Amino acid sequence: MNAKIEIIFNDGSMQHPRPRGDGFPLFLGDDGVDGTVVVSGPDLGAAGGPDSLKITLEGDLLNVISLMDVDWPSSELYRMQMGQKLLHLTDNRVLQDSNGADNAAASFPFHFDIPRQILTPNGLKPGTDLVQSLPSSVHVSFDNCNYNPHHHGCRGKSNVNYRLRAQVVKAGNIIAEAARPISLYPTLQKEPPVCTSDFPGEYALSASKTIRTFLTFRRMGVLCIETSEPSPFEFHSMKDDASTTINIRLRYRPIHGHVDGIESLKPVYATVNSKLQSTTFVSVVPRQRLPTCEEADKSPFVTKHCSTHMRHKRKLRFAPWRQAVSKEGTFNRDPPSAANQEWESEATLVVEYTGDDYPEPTFMSSLVSRRYTLHMHVEVEWLGHHTTFELQVPVQVRYKSKPSSRPQEVLQSSVDEGTTLQELSDRVDTELQLRDGPPIYVA
Questions:
Q1: CB contact at 8 A, 334 and 340
Q2: How far apart are CA 365 and CA 40, in angstroms?
Q3: 14, 338, 359, 405: least buried by Cβ within 10 Å?
C-alpha cells in the first residue's frame, strides 16, 4: 500500500500579515501546537492495511563553532559542535480513532501542550541534568572575522529546529512518513530588570557632558541624561504590533551659581535615533549563567552574533525645568546651596516596533540565548548648543499567549519513551532540590 500523508496546521498562533523570515507557521508556547494529519490511500481500512499512526512533535538544537587560523583567516583550525534533544512528544493513534475514516482517507486531529522548562544533560557533570527554559526557534550563522593578528576569528551556526512528524505504521514497520517544520516561540514569564553591573561595558543608562560658552569656552554647567530599562516589547495573537515607553530625564547643574531665570528659559528639544539590536550567544559547552560579551570575545567555546532589527527616529520636547534634589551618582554631593542646585526636566519616548518580521523572544538556555539592546543616539538642543549622548538600554521582547491558554511549567525531559508523567514530575522535583546553583537568569 502506498499511503499519502498531509499535515495541516491550524494557522499557528500569530495570524497577522507580518511575514516570517523562514516561512514556517509560528506557534506560541502556551497556545500549543494543533492541526490535523490526513492519511489517504487505497484500501486504507481494509484487512491487512496499516494499523496505526504515530504523530510526534520534535525539537533539537545544533551549535557549531569553527576556530580560524590567524595567518590564514579562511583556514579552519578545528571545529566544535554540540547538539541537544529538546522535545519528543508522541501521540499514537489507531485507524479506528480517525474522524471520517473510510476506505480512501482518514483524518486525525492533534494538539500538543508545550512545556516551559525541560531537563537536558549536564555536560559538566555526567549523570546529572540541567533545568532550563525551552529555547526559541533560532537560525543564525556567523563569520566573526578578527583582524587582530594575535587573535583567532571564528565562524559557525546555531539552529534550534522544531517539526511535526507523522508516520504510518503497519505491523511495527513504518510504511509512510512526512514532516513539516514549525517556528516555536516560548511564552515565558517577564524577567526582572537587568543588573547592568553584571555585564560590564555593555549598557549605559546615563551620561554627562560639560556645557561651555561659545567664545571663551568658559564652563557653564554639567548636563546629565538618565534613563532606565523600559517595559518589554510584547507581542500576542490579538494584535500585530508592539511598543515600549522610555522615560528620559535631563539634569543640569550650573557652575558658579548661574541659576537665575532658568525656569523661564526656552524648552529643551532633542532628536533621538535608536536601533534595536539582538545578541545571540552560542556555546558548545553547557552553561548555567548567561554569558557576557567579554566572555564571548575571549572564550573559544562561546561566541556571539549581533543583528539589527529596526531603526527609529523621534523628536522630543522636554517639560519645563524644575528644581530637583541632587541624586547620588550623578553629580558630586556637596552641601546644598544656591550655587550647586540641580534642575531637571523629563520627556517620554514611545518606540514602536517597525521591523519586517517577528523578532525571536528574549530567552536563556544552556547552549543558546538571546537578549536585546536599544542603542540610542540623543542630540539635545538647548541654549544654542547641540549636545550628543550615547545610551545602551536593555530591553526584553516577549510573546503573550491567548487569555484562555494555561501555562505548563516542567513537562519534558531527555528521558526514554514510556516514562510516566508522575515519574517525570518526581524527577524534576528532585533536580530542583539537588542542583547546587540557581537557574539561568538575566541579572
A1: yes
A2: 40
A3: 338
- Backbone phi, then psi, for 142, in 5-degree steps? -140, 155
Question: Residue 333 is placed in which grid cell?
Answer: 554631593
What does the DSSP assignment read for 366-432? SSEEEEEEEEEEEEEEETTEEEEEEEEEEE-EEEE--TT-----EEEES--TT--HHHHHHHHHHHH
CB neighbours of residue 66 within 10 Å? 18
In this predicted model, what pLDDT tens digit does every residue of 106-152 receive, in sequence order? 889 999 999 888 887 776 677 777 788 899 999 998 876 554 444 56
**How far apart are alpha carbons 1 and 7 in whole angstroms?**
19
**Which grid coordinates are listed for 91?**
501521540
Instruction: Let me know: does 414 contact 119? Beta carbons within 8 Å.
Output: yes
How far apart CA 397 and CA 370 sit, in angstroms, is 10
Can you point out the beta strands (E) in 41-75?
A: 52-68
Parallel/antiparallel/unpaired status of strands 219-226 and 206-212: antiparallel
pTM: 0.80
Residue 171, number of CB atoms within 10 A of its CB:
9
Place of cell 539634569: 251
137 with 360: CB under 8 angstroms? yes
Residue that is written with C-alpha cell 528620559 in the block: 248
HSE-up of 155 (CA within 13 Å, CB side)? 9
Least reliable range by pLDDT among 41-55, 196-210, 214-228, 303-317: 41-55
* Residues 410 and 428 sit within 8 Å (Cβ to Cβ): yes
Q: What share of the chain is helix, strand, coil (3-state, %, to 5)?
A: 5, 50, 40
What is the 8-class DSSP label of residue 302?
E
> Domain map of the chain by residue range?
4-187+405-434, 196-400
- Cell numbers at residue 79, please? 571545529
